[in-house]
UniProtKB/TrEMBL annotation, chains A, B:
UniProt-annotated location(s): Apical cell membrane; Cytoplasm
Residue ranges annotated for the Succinylglutamate desuccinylase/Aspartoacylase catalytic domain, each copy included: 24-146
Residues holding Zn(2+): H57
Entries under Gene3D superfamilies matching the protein: Zn peptidases
GO MF entry, a single one: aminoacylase activity
GO cellular component labels: apical plasma membrane; cytosol
Organism placement in taxonomy: Eukaryota, Metazoa, Chordata, Craniata, Vertebrata
Family according to the record: Belongs to the AspA/AstE family. Aspartoacylase subfamily.
Keyword Metal-binding: yes
Name recorded for this polypeptide: N-acyl-aromatic-L-amino acid amidohydrolase
Entry-linked InterPro entries: AspA/AstE_fam, Aspartoacylase, AstE_AspA_cat, Aste_AspA_hybrid_dom
Amino acid sequence: ESCQYTIIFHCMAALSERGSAPVSETSPYEMVRSQELNALLGPKASMQAVDLLCDLHNTTANTGLCLITYSDRDWICLHICKHLQREMASTPVRYVHFDIPLNEAYSLDSVGKHGFAMEIGPQPHGVVRSVIFSAMQEGVQLMMDWICQFNSGTLFEGGWVDVYTMVKNIDYPRDSETHVITAAVHPDLQDRDFCLLHPGDPMFLCFSGETLRYRGKEALYPFFINEGAYYEKGVALSLARKRRVQIPSVRSETLR
Amino acid sequence: ESCQYTIIFHCMAALSERGSAPVSETSPYEMVRSQELNALLGPKASMQAVDLLCDLHNTTANTGLCLITYSDRDWICLHICKHLQREMASTPVRYVHFDIPLNEAYSLDSVGKHGFAMEIGPQPHGVVRSVIFSAMQEGVQLMMDWICQFNSGTLFEGGWVDVYTMVKNIDYPRDSETHVITAAVHPDLQDRDFCLLHPGDPMFLCFSGETLRYRGKEALYPFFINEGAYYEKGVALSLARKRRVQIPSVRSETLR
């Protein structure tokens, strides 16, 4: 059995999985569309779902290229990540793990048997930056190359992959009464995605001039720092814990 | 007589001056609002118009701080520019001149007796970057300081200001039949606003991999390179000619 793959150019992580909610004439477009996609590519968690689903995203945050997944033990996704890390010279490639149950996962890639979002930044929304576009193109091509080699029976050696597991989100500071945002990401933190943030490091610079610092007890890795689409979600940045995950050698037959 | 000033936080250059078109119940919001603002701050080209109107903008292009005007001989605007250039240590400040008749000018600042847009970048739309926010804040404060000093009778020495006069806009390369964009701004040009572009320099990198070069006969200064809001206007970048303009010493009395 070979690995089928589907690439969906889906711009926003707005797919919500509500398989049980009936669709009516007045349902929001996003809900209708999510059910259409689930029928086309899934159904999620079924035998009919596509083998691998990759959802392409871009962000205003300086993330480089990230594979965002709901599993830290999906050898297919981890091997693809390792392949991209090995082959992409000028773009950092990282594996991000959202540790939530699959039935709570809201993004399109969760519909496939294996899947991830390929997220790349920094790029303003509504803009194509040539270097970012080329890196995404290279990432997609390398993923497809890996699948072709895997389907041809190539053995991929095991090894280690750094996994960034999301621990929590941090909101912008807000006025306690009006909830209006009162600070921007601190210049020392802006664009420093995946650079270790230590307790006491500057986190926000208030419009009043005051610096607010990271008050956590544990040094963690910030990412999605100042992503434009997350203001409305109340997320100024996310924090992750890094650890190394060992992956086995894989060959097509071993996964049957 | 002192100089009155009004600062309008107006995000998009969407004000169109159609003083003669009657407003009805079905008029687009932008047209209704432009007439409200014209009544409030103008009427444009009348004795009742405010003395100075500054309209604050931000852009995805790496412009630094620009004063964008419709005049290359407005001593108020030129002196404010000189003041900002002298006082702002870490932000480049430039004077941009759109050489079109005032009655064709579509932006809010054209309603005042004197006026300019204060444009700053790079910043993605929908995002606040702390360094950009602080630079805008400093620019606005310095402008108001200048006005206060001017109103107090301070003499401002004359001198020279570099003026960038817009010569033409360049659209993205497009498919001749579908008009779909076929290239992004070349990595060698991206973010190099106000760096002289010579004939033969790379301008676009096609999605096919081909490099397209600047075919003009004259070296010019590119600006608004890859501004997100200008894709729909068919503008990938603008080109300007630079020259030095001499400005006289000014003091409040001399302008009565």
